[in-house]
């Protein structure tokens, strides 16, 4: 249980006029992150995990991370105490989604009990199911009947969470290149109200994500995206923050116990250093965020 006063507005980048934009995950519990390959989705998801783990305690926030591209992008996060696990294959993902679903159901039962017996409203910690390359979960890509059933079960759990996860605070952030009907059933898609649409391949993909064209015309700058939310009238063009590898390494190193057995040996966690910038040594929360140039 956590304190009600904690704020859930997350900075999600800057506009061309240097104004920081916030996304309130309490008001808009589920979101999708879409865009062509190389447009910046994974980097943005990594930023979100880093920012939220720095800002909230593990009692306030937990993550279930599903990375169907092999888990490498999110491997460093295994040491954040907020992260329940990083799941890399379809069977693992199904188990993880089921775990989130069960957490949600247990909470819903408890809410009823607390209301009836104690006339009290519990405030739960937030559990975010963050999925990268969610399209890989699609039943359309199944190779056997059994595989297909498993994927359908995952979609069933996800759609339940998308429908009723708001109150028990189980949220979905779903990253995929193209959330068409094959990769993301319409019933789930409609509930993912926060939209982070990076540059798309074409007009059709933009229409699938945003319900209008435009994302195909974004400048080809990684991290540039259109933000759509039921709380804002017009889509906002934003440059996303990212976390330089060296910064991430410095944040995580103190969390790694020295003589424990891990899923991934410490040496296998690689950090690319090319994004290192001067001044990164001073790791305050502000320094976690780097915003690229507008390029104009
Ligand atoms: N906000 C950003 N600022 C600066 N550079 C970025 C930003 N986001 C991404 N990049 C650069 O672009 C590269 C590709 O980004 P990323 O891996 O996030 O793309 P993606 O959309 O996940 O692609 P894919 O669909 O192939 O997984 C990153 O390795 C990084 O170098
Ligand atoms: Mg990616």
TrEMBL record:
Keyword ATP-binding attributed: yes
Pfam families: FtsK_SpoIIIE (PF01580)
Binding site residues for ATP: 35-42
Ranges in coiled-coil conformation: none
Key words, A-Z: ATP-binding, Nucleotide-binding
PROSITE patterns in alphabetical order: FTSK
Leader sequence segment: none
Domain (FtsK) ranges: 18-207
Name under which the protein is recorded: FtsK/SpoIIIE domain-containing protein
Organism: Alicyclobacillus dauci
């Amino acid at each position: 249980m956590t304190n009600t006063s904690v704020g859930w507005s997350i900075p999600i980048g800057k506009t061309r006029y240097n104004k920081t934009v916030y996304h309130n995950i309490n008001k808009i519990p589920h979101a999708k992150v879409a865009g062509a390959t190389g447009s910046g989705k994974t980097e943005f998801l990594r930023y979100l995990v880093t920012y939220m783990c720095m800002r909230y305690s593990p009692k306030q926030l937990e993550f279930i991370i599903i990375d169907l591209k092999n888990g490498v992008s999110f491997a460093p996060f295994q040491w954040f105490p907020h992260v329940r696990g990083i799941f890399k294959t379809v069977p693992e993902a199904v188990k993880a989604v089921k775990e989130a679903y069960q957490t949600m159901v247990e909470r819903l039962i408890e809410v009823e009990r607390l209301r009836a017996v104690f006339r009290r409203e519990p405030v739960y910690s937030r559990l975010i199911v963050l999925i990268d390359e969610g399209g890989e979960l699609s039943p359309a890509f199944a190779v056997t009947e059994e595989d297909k059933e498993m994927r359908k079960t995952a979609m069933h759990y996800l759609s339940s969470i998308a429908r009723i996860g708001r109150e028990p605070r189980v949220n979905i952030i779903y990253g995929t290149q193209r959330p068409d009907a094959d990769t993301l059933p319409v019933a789930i898609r409609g509930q993912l109200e926060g939209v982070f649409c990076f540059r798309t391949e074409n007009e059709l993909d933009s229409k699938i994500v945003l319900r209008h064209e435009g994302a195909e015309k974004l400048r080809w700058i990684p991290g540039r995206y259109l933000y759509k939310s039921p709380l804002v009238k017009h889509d906002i063009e934003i440059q996303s923050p990212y976390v330089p590898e060296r910064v991430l390494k410095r944040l995580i190193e103190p969390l790694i116990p020295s003589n424990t057995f891990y899923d991934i040996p410490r040496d296998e966690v690689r950090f690319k250093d090319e994004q290192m910038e001067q001044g990164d040594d001073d790791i305050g929360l502000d320094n976690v965020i780097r915003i690229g140039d507008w390029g104009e």
